[in-house]
Amino acid sequence: MTSYWLFKSEPDVFGWDHLVAAPDQSTGWEGVRNYLARNYMRDHMKVGDLGIFYHSSCTPPHAAGIVEIVRESHPDPLQFDATSDYHDPKSDPDNPRWMMVRVKAVERFARSVTLDMMRQEPGLAELLILRKGNRLSITPMTRDEFEAIAALGRVG
DNA sequence: GCCAACGTTGGC
DNA sequence: GCCAACGTTGGC
């Protein structure tokens, strides 16, 4: 059974254009340092799951396209890199604390789906990203929510 | 730059 | 194990 996820990223740091420019149009989703978001990746994401790639901290915030999980949970190498902002000296290499999945670009929406468009879509009323104060970089969504966003992105 | 929300830290 | 202080996120 396919599950659906929303991946949030700042386009200035790592956006859709970076993803499609990467080898095989894929990237390890490194740098997640929140336990709940990690647990989604570690315990629930399967190869073949689909995600919405969402651009945050930009004007306007928007969903840019669709990604697919192409590799399941494995250790995030940055936790052991002393030069990285994501270095975690307390993480044990024999029992890594931070895990990641690999995602690959599947489809760039014909038009970006802005936060405002999502707010006006009745089928997205319960979407976690629209809830005030939600700061998680990875959130689950239903298949219906995923399809509603994709439908908005394919119009126009 | 503001501020609400909320996860994390650390003293006790 | 409580909880106040602090830091971060992210829309506006």
Task: Explain how this protein is built.
Strand 3 and strand 4 form a beta hairpin. With about 160 residues, the chain is of the alpha+beta class. It has helices at about 10-15, 15-20, 35-45, 115-120, 145-155, and strands at about 5-10, 25-30, 50-55, 60-75, 100-115, 140. Strands 2-5-4-3-1-6 form a six-stranded mixed sheet. The chain binds a DNA duplex (12 and 12 nucleotides) through loops.
List keywords for this structure.
6 strands, 5 helices, six-stranded mixed β-sheet, 24% helix, 156 residues, DNA-binding, alpha+beta
Task: Set down the secondary structure blueprint.
Blueprint (H helix, E strand, L loop, with lengths): L3 E6 L1 H4 L1 H6 L4 E3 L6 H10 L5 E6 L6 E14 L23 E16 H5 L18 E4 L1 H12 L2
Parallel strand pairs: 1-3
Antiparallel strand pairs: 1-6, 2-5, 3-4, 4-5
The structure holds a DNA duplex (12 and 12 nucleotides).
Placed side by side, the strands forming the largest sheet appear as: 2-5-4-3-1-6
Distance separating the two termini: 31 Å
Mean pLDDT over the residues = 95
- Cα-atom radius of gyration: 15 Å
- Supply the number of helical segments: 5
